[in-house]
Amino acid sequence: MFQKSTNYYWLALVLGIQIFTTSQVRAQSRLDQYIQQGIESNQSIKQQAFLLQKNMYVLNEAKTMFLPNITFSTTYTKADGGRTIDFPAGDLLNGAYATLNQLTGSNSFPQLQNQHVQINPDNFYDARFRTTLPVLNAELIYNKKIRSQQVDLQKAEILLYKRELVKEVKTAYYNYLKATNAVKIYQSFLQLVEEGERTNTKLFENAKINRTAVIRSRNEVSKINASLTTARKTEESARYYFNFLLNRPLTDSILADEIVTLPTQDQRQNNDVSSREELSKLKISKDINENLNGLARSYLIPKIGTYLDLGSQAFDWKFNQNSRYYFWGISLEWNLFSFGKNTYRIKQTIADKQAITSQTDYVQQQLLTELKVRQANMQSAIARYQAAQSQLKTSQTYYSDMTKLYKEGMAIYIELLDAQNQWIDAQLQANIALFDTWISFTAIERANASFNIQ
């Protein structure tokens, strides 16, 4: 018989552990689902995602700068007058032609007129395809690196928005659970004081007690009803804000889970702030500054490019073997002197680098201080929770004792009422302390960026 009872005990214990574990996993799963829903529907994050997409397009544009560029252009000119080139063909050849005509006794060599050739081309076209390709251009190389780092910077910005949203969603969720549990506590206590009012009324009708106990019990019912109304309004407000963060109708219901334990110790002791997105952004900014410095120094490297023209040019819109042509060349550009302009640009990037380094040190110290403060708040919240649990046990024992004494006529109703008020206050304080620890833990997760964002 003893062995059978022992088996039942262990079976109940295992089932209890499984039920508790399942409840905790489901609670965490529900909260994670809410967080994911909030991230997917948040308008600010969507705006940042659009900016990321824009930066990706800018990066792709920078990559195309290294590829050949083909353009088509054409010109047509119609001209009359202007400068001319004088060619004395008659003066040079007419004398010789006259002598030849006399020697041959013929007119085979006609007399020529001096020529006046117009410089401006008349009825002339030039159509061509030009292909250009940069061979060496340091500005393009640094520009591509900077655009790529700007994409990384925008990704860090999006992650920063997500992490802040996670903190807000989790805090709002815990505040909603806190308000929901407070409503349950007041509802339970309302039944208790209503039963007390009913009992005191019967006792008064049977002349067992005086009117004072009845009046006090009615006052307690009114007071708890008022507190219950306030708690419901607080719950309603918490639900509105939580749904607002998830960008869904404010009146949507929330799946509330029972949380009865504190965060584990290992989750609270992470003192590393290197994962903070603020530091990542500063590191990326420092890398961008280094490339800006390289861009400012790129004037020392000559720019080399090549081009190829394939076209046709002729008068009177003729297109034939003689009009077609190709034209290939290499260009070199080297900035040798610019009166210190490039030197000042370099000095600007050096000053920016020093400013970023100083800001990084300050922000890192600031974030570390924030984490220490959050951890201290967590320790205070745990101390308040432990004190509240102790007070809850004490007040519950005190209330049980007073109930027995009151039923035996050894205590007056005022003493029982005092025990009731202490008990409900202890329940409310324990409820507040429990969820304050989770809210403090959420602040620590935000401070050390330990929450894994999908």
TrEMBL record:
SUPFAM superfamilies: Outer membrane efflux proteins (OEP) (SSF56954). Keywords: Cell outer membrane, Membrane, Transmembrane, Transmembrane beta strand, Transport. Belongs to the outer membrane factor (OMF) (TC 1.B.17) family. It holds the Pfam family OEP. This is TolC family protein. It comes from the Bacteria. It is found in: Cell outer membrane. GO terms for cellular component: cell outer membrane; efflux pump complex. It comes from Chitinophaga tropicalis. GO terms for molecular function: efflux transmembrane transporter activity; porin activity.
